[in-house]
Amino acid sequence: MQSSPYVLAPNSVSRIMFTVLLALLPAIAVQIWLFGPAILISLAIATISALGFEAFVLNLRERPIWPAISDGSAILTAWLLTLSIPSIAPWWLTVTGIFFAIVIAKHLYGGLGNNVFNPAMVGYAALIVSFPVPMTQWAAPDSLAHHYLDGIDAIHYIFNHRLPDGWSLDAISSATPLDTLRTQLKLHHSVSMIRQMPMFGQLAGRGSEMVALAYLAGGLFLFTKRIISWHIPLAMLGALALVSGIFWLIDPQYYASPLFELVAGGSLLGAFFIATDPVSAATTPHGKLIYGAGIGILVYLIREFGAYPDGVAFGVLLMNIAVPLIDAWTQPAPYGHKKDAA
Amino acid sequence: MTDRLHTFHGGIHPEEHKTLSTTHPIAQAPIPARLIVPVRQHIGEPARPCVSIGEKVRKGQIIAQADGYVSLPAHAPTSGIVTAIAPHPVPHPSGLSDLCIHIEPDGQDIWIEHSASDYQSMHPSTLRNLLRDMGIAGLGGAVFPTFAKLNPGKAVKIPTLLLNGGECEPWITCDDMVMRERADDILRGAAIMRHLLQSDEILVGIEDNKPQAIAAMRTAAQQSDIPVRIISIPTLYPSGGAKQLIKIITGREVPSGGRSTDIGVATFNVGTALAVHRAVNLGEPMVSRVVTVTGNVGQAQNFDVMIGTPMQDLIALTGLPPEPVSGVIMGGPMMGIKITDLHAPAVKATNCILVKSGTMFPSPPPAMECIRCTRCAEVCPAELQPQALYWFARSKHFDKAREYALFDCIECGCCSYVCPSHIPLVQYYRFAKSEIAATEANERASNLARQRHDARTARLEREARERAERLAQKSAAKPAGDEAKQAAIDAAIARAQTQKTTSE
Ligand code: SF4
Ligand code: SF4
To answer: Is A239 part of a structural domain of the chain?
Structure first.
């Protein structure tokens, strides 16, 4: 029997999920504009396989399929994973990542709401550990690529790994700016020399910096819609800026500037769209600050001292483990429990 | 003079729908064909009926006596004949019936003798007894006996008397209309309350969506010779919750488990102040109140209603509902209770009768899993973590729920309102609270039984020992007899019992 309240705000899980998807559109548009339409094909592969895996597992678990499919959460996971890996990744790479995200990370833990780890990042981690090579072959921006993969060419490449005659993979792809910075530093080049390379732009990577700024715009949109709170993004970016700033001040020729770190790689996508995944994040206000700051610090440490070029996925996953502790330690004092208020 | 206001955490802005019922002044509801007066309309012990079937009663006559300290009498709302003293459906969340005194009005509406009292010259406890005899209970919803709250006790005085004109629940406008139309009388009642509490100041908090009420109260305050300040507060549900209003106006929080008087504030609903005025200055007990009848009705309006009027009679006053009726709520949509039987009477707690339709109140979509989005925590005025409480309540980890301050939840419904997964969170909290209360009652009962048992064992042992000692004294003089045997047996039984208790 229903009891009070008898009215509900016009809100729903699917409304939240689709608003987040909407907030990703600017970045996707910028990516199409600067890197070609391959991302659309990868997004389609990811979306279809995510929905397929979701339906399949729900069927196995004898759960109603439609409510879960229509809540948009599987699509969001699919998009976030796709945007975290190369847009020209072969189809099986995307599908394998989605399998880990949806089947392992989401449903083995009990489905939406019960997953301890961020599903998209579990998918990413599985891929970078198992298939490191295709994970480094990113589409080069139009302005750098010798050739331009249009829609049909992209389909051929993604599904058959076939390029038009006379084209080489090197001509259309490149390593990420973070990767390049890392390998060049090992060759004892200074940051300022490395930044002269054509693949770098004003802030970070040429082209990719524009995509990153579009994530920032989408994130601010989500903030104004009150779908995310400021705590996690600000703490994560703040901690990243602080730690990278300290190293940069110590040796600016060996450590990139905080601005570069904030814009490069998955920093902004991670801060606004991935670390803020509510299910796997901390829940208390102070807890969110600790959680976000922890990710920011880990991202930097992994980038500088770890074995992987970017640290967002592992930073998020490591902090996911700490969430129950963080939440338990940071319970705010309820009304009437504060020491000094009364 | 501007007041520096404070804010409470969270809160929501549900659609108000208040203008529907403020277009017409408060109307007098007619005397119904039958009045049903429950003996339990307040918090505390139910009253004991003191009339018999067939007895003629007059308006204002006590028909049930208060029973115990926290209790109030019930009065005949009009003159007529007692036709039954029997269980009848009453507005209660349980939907159960309760003992009611049924009166068939004679249509004369003849009062018992009554007169004004000069409260200034009365001893405070006499004045409190008067308010008790008049059946005055808080009209804001809690229906706590008012006289008991008007006792400063050891504190000698309560510095701040705070009148609650927040009325933050959507749809409800009875306080709004009472303030518009009867502002002077409200302040006269407040003066009596201030006299009892020895308060330095009277503050009245009113949400700023009631500009006419604020204006009327300000005018009345200017003409009043007592220190009153009318404070306009931002409209934000649940600013009319006592704890939230206190926070807004004083910036302080009522300690958990404590009372507002611990921080020098006493709060009363504006309607209660009006009732106090009528009881003392006119000698009229609480036999009526103002009720908003609104929602899916012909013309929503406020009525001055005799306590005991069947709800269906009141709904009938508002004309034909434009849409099919899908249910009726007593109170507002955020905290009201469902009325399953419209024969149930309007009682002292009835501030609003809200008639629902399927389009105005669509049934909630099916609940989904919690996605830990913490929207609920953002809006919770008690600053709890509703998503954690939900988890503990659902998994029956009641100890954890309690540790996370479940009992500080005021059941305002903000969390359920915003939850994107449409989880009926408050329902889980009510369930957990009642489970914990039941367990505790059980424990208390078994503790009591154990204490009794222990006391009895101890007594038996002591008696056996005393007898044995007496015997020993005697046997020093003469050989053991029957008495000694009996004492030994008693002692053995007592020992056996002690062993049994300790091995339990
Ligand atoms: S609002 Fe609902 S879904 Fe969100 S955290 Fe609270 S209970 Fe969970
Ligand atoms: S019902 Fe309880 S938990 Fe929910 S918002 Fe109100 S006080 Fe907080």
So the answer is: no
Q: How many residues does chain B have?
A: 504
Query: Under 8 Å CB-to-CB from B210, ≥6 apart: which residues?
Result: B165, B167, B176, B179
3-state secondary structure of B352: strand
Chain A: closest CA distance from residue B452 (Å):
37
Q: Do A6 and B9 touch (CB under 8 A)?
A: no
Best of B247, B369, B431 to disrupt the A interface (most A CBs within 10 Å) is: B369
Q: Residues 366-395, chain B: which have Cβ within 8 Å of A?
A: 366, 368-375, 377-378, 381-385, 387-388
Chain A partners of B404 at a C-beta cutoff of 8 Å? 331
CB contact under 8 A, B253 and A338: yes
A312 within some domain: no
Cβ contacts of B481 within 8 Å, gap of 6 or more: none
The SS3 of residue A49 is helix
Provide the domain limits for residue A49.
Answer: 11-174
The answer to whether residues A331 and B404 touch, using CB atoms and an 8 Å cutoff, is yes
* AA identity, residue B482: D
Per-residue pLDDT for chain A (342 aa), expressed as one digit of tens each? 578 899 999 999 999 999 999 999 999 999 999 888 999 999 999 999 999 999 999 999 888 888 888 899 999 999 999 999 999 899 999 999 999 999 999 999 888 888 999 999 999 999 999 999 888 888 888 777 667 778 888 888 888 888 877 777 777 787 788 888 888 888 888 888 788 877 787 877 777 889 999 999 999 999 999 999 999 999 999 999 999 999 999 988 888 889 988 998 899 999 999 999 999 999 999 999 999 999 999 999 999 888 887 889 999 999 999 999 999 999 999 999 886 544
CA of B7 to the centre of ligand 1 (A): 23
Q: How far is the CA of B242 from the centre of ligand 2 (A)?
A: 14
Is residue B360 within 8 angstroms of chain A, CB to CB?
no
Considering CB atoms only, which of B257, B368, B426 is closest to A5? B426
The pairing of strands B48-49 and B35-38 is unpaired
Domain for residue A71, yes or no? yes
ipTM of the complex: 0.89
Question: What DSSP assignment string belongs to B59-97?
Answer: BT-EEEE--SSSB--EE-SSSEEEEEEEEEE-S-TT--E
3-state secondary structure of A182: helix
Reduce the secondary structure of B398-442 to three states and give it as a string. HHHHHHCCHHHCCCCCHHHHHCCCCCCHHHHHHHHHHHHHHHHHH
Q: How far does the centroid of ligand 1 lie from the alpha carbon of residue B236, in Å? A: 21
Are A149 and A224 in contact, with CB atoms under 8 Å apart?
no
Instruction: Give a yes or no: residue A38 inside a domain.
Output: yes
Dmax over Cα atoms in chain A, in whole Å?
78
Entry pTM: 0.87
Report the domain count for chain A: 1
- Asked if A261 and A300 touch (Cβ cutoff 8 Å), the reply is yes
Domains of chain B, CATH where assigned: 130-284 (3.40.50.11540), 375-436 (no CATH)
Pick from A127, A135, A187, A171: nearest CA to A36:
A171
Closest Cα in chain B, distance from residue A54 (Å): 16
Where do we find the tokens 């920032």? Answer: A216
Q: Does A61 touch chain B (CB under 8 A)?
A: no
The closest-lying atom of ligand 2 relative to the alpha carbon of residue B238 is 6
Preferred mutation among A1, A2, A8, A65 to probe B, highest tally of B CBs within 10 A: A8
d(CA B477, CA B492): 24
- Best A1, A2, A7, A330 member to test B by mutation, with max B CBs in 10 Å, is A7
On chain B, the residues whose CB falls within 8 A of the CB of A112 are: 368-369, 371
Q: Tell me the pLDDT tens digit for each residue of B120-154.
A: 999 999 999 999 999 999 998 778 999 988 988 87
